[in-house]
Amino acid sequence: MALLNVENATMQFGGLTAVKDFNLKINQGEVVSLIGPNGAGKTTAFNMITNVYTPTKGKIIFNDIDVTGMRQDLITKTGIARTFQNIRLFKDLSVLDNVLIANHVHIKSNFLEAILKLPKYRREEKEMVKKSLDLLGELGLEDLKDEKASSLPYGKQRKLEIARALATNPKLLLLDEPAAGMNPTETDELTAFIKEIKDKFDLSIFMIEHHMNMVMSLSDRIQVFEYGITIAEGTPSEIQNDKKVIDAYLGVTEDD
Ligand SMILES: Nc1ncnc2c1ncn2[C@@H]1O[C@H](COP(=O)(O)OP(=O)(O)OP(=O)(O)O)[C@@H](O)[C@H]1O
């Protein structure tokens, strides 16, 4: 059984069908990318998987669990983490605090134990700080731990956002346009970073991205959306040579 199975997921907003009969399988260790013109429904597909929107039809099965319509924090606990098109950080908090907050999804102490700072909570908190520092170390961000998130250069903010996602111990990482706003050098660096974390953390990845060099170099498979419908799927070379895709998208994209 694939790690992620999306079966006929459909999302309607009033009279608009943003995504229709979306089917996707991602196996353990695979990188799958979703491409398509602006407004094709890519982010909506992510939003159905993470239940920002509950699909109007269809199912999302992750790791043999039906997560369709499940509370977002519980979906995170099953092992799905995501980043957003527009970076979402606690801008006034430090790098370390940003990761610590994400880590709290796994805290076991109850509310009272936390409020009263009972020994169990204090012990857990100490472990969380250590885990967060270790993670920052593995990602090469440890030196920045005390910096305010908003003071980091853009590329580092992206990495911090990914670090926050990794702090929840995901099996599947969803990246929504991770290279948005990056120049070719930054994009290459991010591509290498994603390859590195994929291996280090044993991840499967589902990514939306417009930078075609990055998509082609990272993806095992690519799925193409147009007007909420899958018009093609295949390996990078199959997609690059698909006439429908060239007409709908590749021919007109602003590439790097
Ligand atoms: N909450 C919503 N309510 C109504 N319509 C929505 C909502 N979210 C998305 N849509 C519509 O669904 C369609 C798909 O949007 P979506 O953001 O998923 O596209 P996208 O492929 O991610 O685009 P982009 O590349 O520009 O991010 C668009 O027509 C959009 O206006």
UniProtKB/TrEMBL annotation:
Entry keyword set: ATP-binding, Nucleotide-binding
Domain of life of the organism encoding this protein: Bacteria
Protein name: ABC transporter ATP-binding protein
Species this protein is from: Inconstantimicrobium mannanitabidum
